Amino acid sequence: MKTKLALLALAGLLALPGLAHADDASYCEALGALALRYMGSAGGEGHLAPDITTLNALRDCRSGNTAAGIAFLEKKLRAAGFTLPKRD
Question: Cα–Cα distance between 61 and 25 in angstroms, integer?
Answer without folding.
Answer: 6
